[in-house]
């Protein structure tokens, strides 16, 4: 069973859960994003947002946290490959951070579309 198709998938899922746990436990950027995710989820329950709004909200949360995780992995790999300062490594890290920024700004825009009508119904 261990080397079967299903066994490998189960083992891979275990590695993924371990990776998510390591991110939440050790990475301040993921911890901040997780706290924001909890906050907007509480806001969603408070304002009783629609199923469609939940879908957009969870998609935005997932994309931001995934981008943050990939950014963390890219930075760790870059530091491992070239621990000293190097302009090309810095460029790679900046691009990865830029991807997180784009997803975060998109998530804020989605949150504004969802919550502003609840907070300011006369808009």
From TrEMBL:
<keyword id="KW-0443">Lipid metabolism</keyword>
<keyword id="KW-0444">Lipid biosynthesis</keyword>
<dbReference type="InterPro" id="IPR033717">
    <property type="entry name" value="UDPK"/>
</dbReference>
<keyword id="KW-0812">Transmembrane</keyword>
<keyword id="KW-0808">Transferase</keyword>
<feature type="transmembrane region" description="Helical">
    <location>
        <begin position="54"/>
        <end position="74"/>
    </location>
</feature>
<dbReference type="Pfam" id="PF01219">
    <property type="entry name" value="DAGK_prokar"/>
</dbReference>
<keyword id="KW-0067">ATP-binding</keyword>
<feature type="transmembrane region" description="Helical">
    <location>
        <begin position="30"/>
        <end position="48"/>
    </location>
</feature>
<keyword id="KW-0547">Nucleotide-binding</keyword>
<dbReference type="InterPro" id="IPR036945">
    <property type="entry name" value="DAGK_sf"/>
</dbReference>
<keyword id="KW-0594">Phospholipid biosynthesis</keyword>
<protein>
    <submittedName>
        <fullName>Diacylglycerol kinase</fullName>
    </submittedName>
</protein>
<keyword id="KW-0418">Kinase</keyword>
<dbReference type="InterPro" id="IPR000829">
    <property type="entry name" value="DAGK"/>
</dbReference>
<keyword id="KW-1208">Phospholipid metabolism</keyword>
<keyword id="KW-1133">Transmembrane helix</keyword>
<feature type="transmembrane region" description="Helical">
    <location>
        <begin position="95"/>
        <end position="120"/>
    </location>
</feature>
<dbReference type="GO" id="GO:0016301">
    <property type="term" value="F:kinase activity"/>
</dbReference>
<comment type="similarity">
    <text>Belongs to the bacterial diacylglycerol kinase family.</text>
</comment>
<keyword id="KW-0472">Membrane</keyword>
<keyword id="KW-1003">Cell membrane</keyword>
